Amino acid sequence: MNGKKRAILFDKDGTLIHYNTIWPDAIRAMIPLFREKFAVKKDVLDDQLLSQLGLNGQLVNDSTPIASGTSSNIAYVLNQALETSHDDLLSFVRDYFYQYTIANQDKIQAIGNVKDLFTNLKAQGYTLGVITADDYESTIFTIKHLKIDELIEFVATGDRYKAKPSSEAMTSFSSELGFDPDQILFVGDSIIDMQFGKHFRTGIAVLSGVGLREELMEYTDYCYQTIHDIPYDTFFTK
Prior knowledge:
This protein is an alpha/beta fold. It has two domains: 6-18 and 109-236, HAD superfamily/HAD-like (Rossmann fold, 3-Layer(aba) Sandwich), CATH 3.40.50; 23-106, no CATH class. The chain is built from ten helices and eight strands. The strands form two sheets. Strands 5-4-1-6-7-8 form a six-stranded parallel sheet, with helices on both faces. It starts with 5 loop residues before the first strand and ends in a 14-residue tail after the last strand.
């Protein structure tokens, strides 16, 4: 590695904040608004839409649009349910989730004390960033809500970069802040996160989100309960 430069990039939903406290309800609340605004095929049921998006009851399935996809992925599924394709659908999805996030900020619940963790990691010399499939405005709102915005030097979102597992966000981070991939850890909770983690020194899975241990371990050798249980320093001495 080049000197002692070290960085850790984190996924957001299911990694920094609890997924189930906000997003399943958000998805359910979106469907009636979607039906009100757009001409949905008569034979399309709500449960069918929710299942296609990745929600079955209270269970969010990994590698689905709502688990690790972008607003574009969600809009694509919804578009298939329309009588006629609609150009405003993506804008509807993006605006809906942003407004829902603001109106339900009490449901944005950190997984442990994220601010303290990030403060300690910064004090140890780590550069920190967030790479998420969520949109930029919602992500920035969440980061500020967690009071970690001043601790983060890089944010990549699904509406500004190619979605994970594309290496585009990693390449941008490396170029902008002067890191080699071998100097960066990536932490996430989904299969796509761990596929994305292959671009870095190490991809580290956490079980606080949508991923199951046995599935995540097919893509990484490292799996912890939460971001607070990871011995970050040891990954730079291996």
